Amino acid sequence: MPAFRSSTYTIGFWLMCLSSFLFFMSFNMLLPELPDHLTRLGGADYKGFIIALFTLTAGLSRPFSGKLADTVGRIPVMVFGSLVCFICGFFYPWATTVTGFLLLRLLHGFSTGFKPTGTAAFIADIIPVERRGEAMGLLGVAGSLGMAAGPAIGGLLAQHFSLNTMFYSSSGMALLSLVVQGTMTETLPQAQREKFSWRLLKLEWSEVLEPRVLAPALVTLLCLFPYGAVLTVIPDQSRLLGIENKGLFFTCYTVASLIVRLVAGRASDTYGRVPVLRWSSALLMVALGLLSFATTPLLFLVAAVLFGLATGLNSPTLYAWTIDLSHPERRGRAVATMYIALEAGIGLGALLAGWIYGNLAEHLPYVHALSASCVLLALAYLLAVVREKPIVA
Questions:
Q1: 373 is in which domain, residue-wise?
Q2: What is the CATH number of the domain that holds 141?
Q3: Region 135-147 average pLDDT
Q4: Integer Cα distance of 20 and 81 in angstroms
């Protein structure tokens, strides 16, 4: 395990980790129960939209959050994202129709369109280049803890209390994240800051995508496609295998991701971003292969662990690689570009998984095979095309 230097990790860094933990716990609490909830509302055929609509709004809002992070500030962007999460969690009990539920999912996506963009830019501002991979790994540990605890706690609240209790608790976690952000100091240089005005929401094409980070963005899209597919079909696959707690897969996955981030957080700082991504992509393909043929709970949960290990390696590496290639004055936009790719991958994965699955158990292997094919494309690109580039300080 790496030796963490206190001079590198300030109170602002640890507060950001706490805020991320609460934020990710907030909306991940809902995931295991939403497919069945939508089915009870009469929307069984729209399960793929649970994730797809969420990621659609998140992706569309990224260029705006990136520009605002580079002009208005990192913290206002994060505050807006957490505020949306708080409001949407509170209103889920009132969305009693399929249309109302799907509209709320669409609005909820603004939360992840803003909060993580500001977070990544904030961390990049305060962490030296030689510790970026490690710092992103530690931030990922906080997010993974929230992602691990969220589904488990959400499932327990729904099982022993009510769905409404789960929804209101989700809203409360977002509010706590918002409170923590209020204690932090803005890191965007004063010379770059502007007061918010509506004209800042007018985008030029050059402000939508940052060309310097297209390579990590493409790998992000291909490697996050499986995550969208998994979010869509795993609750049903869990039920078909007789696993009562539909959040168990996500708990195993996120705990494994957490462990590898702690142990291998500095791997990409030491060995390079691209070599680590090659190995993590290969491991992700193995996990998806196991999911395709998982006929027992044990094999299913082993696949969850391998999926988590692969994600724990590639996620902080992709963040660090993106920041390496970005210009300091366009850091928010570079991060937003990577997140646009992330949301596109997750959204496409969710939509196609829902369409291919069609509530038929025999179609599940095809879903995971398609995901593995996307990762294979990413691996081929990393092996044949990509070379390490100099880091931008």
A1: 207-387
A2: 1.20.1250.20
A3: 82
A4: 11
